[in-house]
Amino acid sequence: xxxxxxxxLAGMGxxxxxxxxxAAAAPKKAKPQKTDEEVAPAExxxxxxxxxxxxxxxxxxxxxxxxxGEKPPLDALSSGTSIVRRVIEQYHEKLEEDFVFPRLEKAKxxxxxxxxxxxxxxxxxTVTANIVRLCDGSDAKNLATLLRVFNRMYRPHAAREDxxxxxxxxxxxxxxxxRELGEKFEDEEKKQLGSEGFEGAVAQVARLEEQFGxxxxxxxxxx
Length: 223
Hints:
By secondary structure, the protein is mainly alpha-helical. It has helices at residues 2-20, 41-67, 74-106, 111-134, 140-172, 175-193, 197-212.
């Protein structure tokens, strides 16, 4: 009987011990991973500036060759102007003109800058149309001049947007509105650039760089 009593008391003590211990924490469920990573509006626009800059580098090389009496790959140059028209002028700049500039102007912020940027968009489209016309090789001198004119305007244009316009635009919009606009940009990208979107434009530029002999980035590293 004494032994049974001791076993009973020991069992009761163990039971009390387990009831006072904190319950083991249930394993946390992993958050579902998004299939498509969201891209903020300013990041989206800056990535497209990257595509523009890569085409501008080809413009620099084509102008150098034309001025030196060489003949650049005019078919690749013409394809570069097609990227500028489709990705930059018809898509990227329309986003800025429809969604970015009006919000800043309504808030009375950077109105002088947006007015200049609008004028430069119009001027750039005119220059691009003339570049397209001369990609047949009929006037090497004027083609080289137009390529230089385009790059001279768009280098400070894109840099001012990246460092002044887009940060001000981000500060102006609240977080919710900024995210919603990012979704709108994504929808517009699919409409204007097709299923391949930005990635397709990057792949196309890479092929043009190969035609110009610039496929290897390391060739530009100082030795």
